[in-house]
Design a protein that fits this description.
Length: about 750
């Protein structure tokens, strides 16, 4: 690769566009002082991305633009373009020529272009870093800056040499990786913060889900309990309804037939003894006894019905009591006093300055908790349950029982009168009165059948009440766990076993079901699907965040490994480069000074970490830690002089030393070109020849653009550009090729 040309327009004194062609190893730029020839070196600095206005001998961007003079008006912007030959593809761009352009306008805005495509400054730096040209400008040595590398501190000197060795690319990669690592670590903190924020909600939802799962398990258990209970109850009720229906059929038919026969017998008796008053009284008594028994039977049925209702109401009230058994009622004044005492203790705890004081206050607060719990345990009362309906039914039962007692007494009294009259008639009747005997016999049978029917109706009433309770249980079960409980018919059970079982066992099953229902209702079944959905969504988000943290941690670990790898490579390549530079540096130094020696060495300078002195109150506190900072030191030894350090060198000696070091660096990792702006100004004639010899040697590896007044230096150039300035203060360009001039002279 070599530098092909430089185009300058509107930059400083170059008001009009000028083009420098660089097609020879050494090109010299000459001209009188003040003609603007040093502006050429600054134009090259400018287009390569120099950001220091001081290095460009300006204060702001506007100072770089031609400001007008004479007949030439001022420019609105300054443009500089530098063109490289890229036929060997060193830039890894698919162009034979690579043109870098920088433009600055009067508002200070800078624009950068690569082959007319606008890019960032960073893109320019990265592209130039591949050909060992960077921001430190070691390849451009201007007048008065020849010993800049000598004046730099060890850290700056290291940076300049790293750039010259082409290691800045590694440094940029390290810096970029460190930025990415810092960003990744910040992202890890943010994701961890998000996980910490949602963790309490996850724990809360997890408890809710556990409650939902327990409720689901309890529903499944309740389905099993219901299946057995309902199947047994249905079998029991069905069997007893069938039995009572069968038992009712015979007595009911017999009673109907007997009443017909009894009516016929009474009619016959009336016709046989129409004037027998005692027989008529007996028939009347029979009718009264029958009516009294009917009243008694109706009262008995009413009593059985009201007793069933009372039993049902008692079961309902007991269920309500069980539901509220765990509820404690506490007076508002007690709760208010408790909260006031607790707030006072918290206020005192927050005001404490020591852990011991705060612990003492917290002990008192715990005592307040204990006293409050103990007090409400003694003062709590059972939640009241409305028993007015039950009391009303009990009063009605008492009334029915009173009426039934009177009815029983009435039946008993009429029976006694009937028996007495019957005995009287028996004494008077003779063997011929068979009709009356038949009537008496049928009356006895009717009484037995009536008693049997009363018993059957009582059992039927009880079974009807049990059936109503059975249907109510099914309705409650359907409302609580769904219509699956109606499939109880599929439960396998033996009817004989059900009928042989004591009813108290079935009642225990019912009570157990009631307890499970109460627990299930207390747990609440509402919103189960929403809870499960929300828990699933938030756990999925937490899992995603966990995976993201894992990915970020892997990325951070990879970046740390890359930083370590690049740092090791940078350190290794740097030390190898120093070894090569030292070899060339020593040779150039001995050539320039006729002996002596010079070398570079890697040194570590201790640097105290910055700390706030105002925070150091204790004299016994250890001093702030120190960290080591690596850099480059320069060691020189002049022949025939006892000079060992840079500080003791004269101006000329410093110029020769800096030239030797710059040339040595260039030899190790040659840049495509070097710009030397009057670096030979301090050399005498003998050293100028040595300087010229070194230029010819360097030109084998890098193009040289030399701004000079030295005749010896001019003689080593193949092309000389002359810079002059006219009356308008505009720099103009003249060029001479030595080979063409020699041919023309012949």
């Amino acid at each position: 690769m070599h530098l092909k040309r430089l185009e300058i327009s509107g930059f400083k004194s170059f008001a009009r566009k000028v083009v420098f062609e660089f097609d020879t190893p050494v090109c010299a730029i000459v001209g009188p002082n003040g003609s603007g020839k040093s502006n050429i070196a600054e134009a090259i600095r400018f287009v390569l991305g120099e950001q220091s206005m001081k290095s460009l001998r300006s204060k702001r961007g506007e100072d770089l633009i031609w400001n007008g003079g004479g007949a030439v008006g001022r420019s609105n912007h300054a443009d500089v373009t530098i063109v490289f030959d890229n036929t060997k593809n060193e830039f890894e761009l698919d162009y034979d020529e690579v043109a870098l352009k920088r433009s600055v306008s009067r508002d200070g805005e800078n624009q950068y272009f690569i082959n007319n495509s606008q890019v960032r400054l960073r893109d320019i730096f990265e592209l130039l870093g591949k050909i060992h040209i960077g921001a430190t400008g070691h390849h451009i040595i201007s007048q008065g800056e020849a010993d800049r590398i000598l004046n730099a501190n060890i850290k700056e000197r290291r940076s300049m040499i790293e750039e010259a060795l082409g290691l800045r690319v590694h440094q940029w990669k390290i810096e970029e990786s460190e930025k990415k690592l810092a960003k990744t670590e910040e992202n890890i903190k943010q994701v961890e913060s998000l996980r910490r924020e949602i963790a309490p909600h996850i724990r809360f939802l997890k408890k809710q889900v556990e409650r939902v799962e327990r409720a689901k398990e309890m529903r499944e258990d309740l389905k099993g309990l219901y299946a057995e209970y309902l199947k047994r109850e249905n079998e029991y009720l069905t069997a007893h309804r069938a039995r009572l229906a069968e038992e009712r059929t015979g007595p009911e038919r017999e009673l109907k037939d007997l009443e017909g026969k009894l009516a016929e017998a009474r009619l016959a008796l009336s016709s046989e003894n129409p004037h027998d008053g005692k027989s008529n009284r007996l028939v009347l008594l029979e009718q009264n006894i029958s009516a009294a028994r009917t009243t008694k039977d109706e009262l008995s049925r009413s009593l059985g019905r009201i007793e069933g209702m009372i039993e049902f109401e008692e079961r309902r009230l007991q269920k309500a009591r069980d539901q509220h058994k765990e509820v404690e009622v506490v007076a508002y004044r007690d709760v208010k006093g408790f909260t006031e005492d607790l707030e006072e203790q918290i206020t005192q705890a927050l005001a404490q300055e020591t852990i011991e004081g705060m612990r003492s206050i917290l002990q008192k607060a715990r005592g307040i908790f204990s006293d409050f719990l103990a007090r409400i345990q003694h003062t709590s009362t059972e939640t009241p349950v409305d028993v007015s309906e039950q009391d009303s039914m009990k009063k009605e039962k008492s009334d029915i029982e009173g009426k039934l007692t009177l009815a029983v007494k009435e039946v008993q009294k009429l029976g006694e009168v009937y028996e007495a009259l019957k005995e009287e008639i028996e004494k008077e009747k003779d063997s011929s009165r068979e009709t009356e005997k038949t009537i008496f016999k049928m009356m006895a049978q009717k009484s037995e059948l009536a008693a049997m029917m009363t018993r059957i109706r009582g059992e039927e009433e009880r079974i009807a009440q049990a059936t109503a309770a059975f249907q109510e249980e099914i309705r409650e079960g359907v409302a609580l766990i769904g219509r699956d409980i109606t499939l109880y018919e599929n439960f396998a059970i033996v009817t004989e076993e059900v009928l042989a079982e004591d009813r108290t066992v079935q009642e225990e099953r019912r009570k157990h079901i009631e307890k499970v229902k109460i627990k299930l209702e207390d747990m609440g079944a509402g919103g189960a699907e929403e809870i499960l959905k929300e828990y699933e969504e938030i756990t999925e988000r937490d899992t995603f965040l966990e995976r993201e943290i894992e990915d970020l941690e892997k990325s951070a670990a990879s970046l740390r490994g890359l930083i370590i790898e690049l740092s090791l490579k940078l350190d290794t390549d740097f030390k190898e480069g120093i070894t090569k530079i030292n070899k060339q540096f020593h040779e150039f130094f001995t050539l320039m000074f006729g002996g002596g020696g010079a070398s570079l060495s890697v040194v570590a300078q201790k640097k105290r970490k910055r700390s706030d002195a105002s925070l150091i109150l204790d004299e016994d506190m250890p001093p702030p830690e120190e960290e080591e900072e690596e850099g480059i030191d320069i060691n020189v030894s002049l022949p025939r002089k006892k000079i060992k350090g840079l500080a003791m060198l004269s101006g000329g000696e410093r110029a020769l030393t800096s030239i030797a070091l710059i040339f040595a660096i260039s030899q190790v990792n040659p840049p495509p070109f070097l710009v030397l702006d009057e670096t030979d100004a301090a050399l005498d004639e003998a050293n100028s020849r040595k300087y010229g010899d070194m230029l010819e040697n360097l030109s084998k590896h890098s193009q040289l653009v030399v701004v000079t007044h030295n005749r010896e230096t001019m003689s080593r150039a193949q092309v000389i550009y002359g810079v002059t300035m006219d009356a308008d203060a505009v720099s103009k360009l003249l060029s001479v090729r030595f080979d063409e001039a020699a041919a023309y002279a012949k």
